[in-house]
Design a protein that fits this description.
317 residues; 8 strands; 14 helices; single chain; eight-stranded mixed β-sheet; alpha/beta
Length: 317
Amino acid sequence: MEYLDFELPIKELEDQLDKCVVIGQESNVDMTTTCKQINKKLEETKKQIYKNLTAWQRVQLSRHPNRPYTLDHIHALCGDTFLELHGDRGFKDDKAMIGGLGKIDGQSFMIIGQQKGYNTKTRQYRNFGMANPEGYRKALRLMKMAEKFGVPVLSLIDTPGAFPGIEAEERGQGEAIARNIFEMIRLKVPIIVVIVGEGASGGALGIGVGDRVYMMENTWYSVISPESCSSILWKSWDYKEQAAEALKLTSSDMKRQKLVDDIIPEPLGGAHFDRENAFKTVEQYVIKAYNELKDLSTQDLIAQRMDKYSNMGEFKE
């Protein structure tokens, strides 16, 4: 397990607990009471740290190297029923954007999402979760296929943004994202969106329009990353913590502003501390959302979706 800077007090206590257990096993000294005291202090420290996280600390947790990525969620939700589909039928298969058919609790879903890598080699292979235009066109192709066969769509978002390279712009990055938003608004099947990690900029919005939009507790959703915001406003990344607070990008901020529908709670310490429970909670929210949407007529489904997004950003003086 890797630890972030603000988690170091937890690491120290866990190391103490491990040493305490080893001493008890290798000697005749009864360490039971000492181990219980350390364990109690460990639990109190965890609660104190994780219940008072800053916006920047939540951003760090969303990027934790041990955090489950999109494919982890898919395999946990679908088991061996997931069939990945490839290519946009125009340019190539974008490895940063994955999609395919799978069954969750017996119900078929068309699942799309960005996938990051676990090490240097796979990060390059997945382009760090930053999709090119062909990735968004592949996602749209799969969503249109889902519409044709009446299959609901599940979108799992985890991206630092769409790929900003010159070649991506040459192939129409902005148009591809805009087309997806336009088409998703009027897609004739239920769309459920879950932000499982980073939700940055148009890269997230390109597959982020849904009837139900959920954020996992330790994720963020914003038009720009804190580092980029800091570099624009202060010409330096040193103010990223201040930028994170100002952007109001956490799950609680987004729900308060009615930009997402609900927050999916995570195990204490984040999804990576107890993956199985995190996966089960996500599954419960997905199935609950589908049950709420499945009986709506096509007209009602689209009308409610359009109303939802039309009402965002309203204010009274």
